Amino acid sequence: MIEENKMKNEIMEKEIINIKDMIYELDGKEIMLDSDLAKLYNVETKRINEAVRNNPEKFPKRFYYRISEDEYNDLKSKFSTSRLENQYGGSRKGHTAFTEQGIYMLATILKSKEAIQTSIAIMDTFVKMRHYINYTKSFLPYKFLILEDKVDNNTKRIDELFDKFNPKDIVKDYIYFEGDFYDSYSTLLDIFNRSKKEIIIIDNYAGKELLDILKKVNRKIIIVSKNIDEILKKKYEKQYKNVTFINNNTFHDRFIILDRYILYSCGTSLKDIGKKCFTINEMYERRYVDIILDEIFESKKRDN
Questions:
Q1: Residue 171 to residue 162: CA distance in whole angstroms
Q2: Alpha-carbon dihedral angle through residues 43, 48, 53, 55, given to the nearest 10 degrees
């Protein structure tokens, strides 16, 4: 009990640091630095990078990358990175930047109770920031959104808006925990219903559980998977005509693409939703949709 209370106190201290101040925008991506993640996880920075080196298959280059000295100095000047380092320590010789997907993958490797709580806090913050961005888009003047100097002049207003969101409500929409079978299933159907014409599902473990859901979805559906059971596929196609199957072995992660425009990443195979903690996140960089579509259909041409 004493050890558990100590861990909770440490997590509270980390929340005082304010995770959102450690999330930076670089080249249109939201990233966190290895040194900041080390502070949150209470390990040395080199341990974060060792985790990447020891698990290369879990960290494709889009999940993390080295930032240049100029980029690092620019972050310091814009976001007061140097102040955080002076207070908590950190390397000035360069840093590794992790995208949200890279941070999520890191959380699967750092498995202590403290690491789990820290990972949840980080994921909550990313989700909260996305809600904040969407919320401000709905009513803030256009110039306020596109001029960076306006952000500096309205810091107090931004913080007030940020605090309006209830983290528990936001987590409910995007992060699901072990046993949340109905909630995660309901969210999956809500995502499918956002589409007008077509749903593309990339999932290497697509099977009966997924097809049981899709047979009730009145959309054109494409399933991209490396493990399509041919017998199951043939039986489904004899009765239902809404699914096209593409055999593809180039993807590790799970994705959902709606109308070739809206992109979601999913932390678990769709057959396992609700079994363990996972996230479903909308990815707002639309260029990734084109990259993934090219990979799907170019590889199909090669196979044919």
A1: 15
A2: 90
Q: Which residues contact 160 (CB under 8 A, 6 or more apart)?
A: none
Q: What is the distance between the alpha carbons of residues 27 and 13, in angstroms, rounded to a whole number?
A: 30
Residue whose pair of structure tokens reads 């196609």 in the numeric block: 237
> What's this model's pTM, rounded to 2 decimal places?
0.47
Q: What is the DSSP string of 174-236?
A: HEE-TT-HHHHHHHHHHHHHH-SSEEEEE-TT--HHHHHHHTT--SEEEEEES---HHHHHHH
pLDDT per position as a tens digit, 13-52: 444 457 878 888 877 778 888 888 888 888 888 888 888 8
Burial of 102 (0-12, 13-18, 19+ CB in 10 A): buried
CATH code given to domain 177-303: 3.30.870.10
d(CA 108, CA 45): 17
Residue with tokens 């995502």: 191
- The pLDDT tens digits for 136-189 are 444 444 444 444 444 444 445 545 544 544 444 443 346 888 888 888 888 898
Q: Determine the residue type at 103.
A: I
Paired strand residues for 264: 256, 282
Tokens of 161: 């808006």
Domain ranges of the chain: 2-169, 177-303
Angle 158-167-174 (CA atoms, 0-180°, nearest 5)? Answer: 110
